[in-house]
Amino acid sequence: MKVAIAxxxxxxxxxxxxxxxLDELQIEYMDMGCECGNGSVDYSDYAxxxxxxxxxxxxxxxxxxxxxxxxxxxxxxxxxxxxxALAHDTFSAKATREHNDTxxxxxxxxxxxxxxxxxxxxxWLTTEFTGGRHERRIGKIAxxxxxxx
Length: 149
Fold this sequence. Notes:
By secondary structure, the chain is of the alpha/beta class. Helices cover 48% and strands 16% of the residues. The chain has six helices and five strands. It has a five-stranded parallel beta sheet, sandwiched between helices.
């Protein structure tokens, strides 16, 4: 598995935590920024490139972090083929992989701490899609995208 990871200025600390987790899990990753120091940047400038790497197949999944995770998830979901979930608890992290086959995870640094963020990311990274009736539901999303985007 290969993961693209990025954050805006509101998510740099959690991004570093998740990079440490990826190293521990021996998962290859591509750090796509930001290197913003104390400056403010726009979350969409980081969400779009990560999402595009996922849909192109260059990476298998993406992880995005901003202050709340909301801006990143909204932006990523504008990219055709992305199923980005905002998760701030472990149950949702597991369910979004099992039921929704999400390919991008968004989290908010101002909402959760580093320990919980690591736990959420680990669950999300190691949980497989269960398929079955959920495949039909994912198919309906893909069909809608084809007709309307």
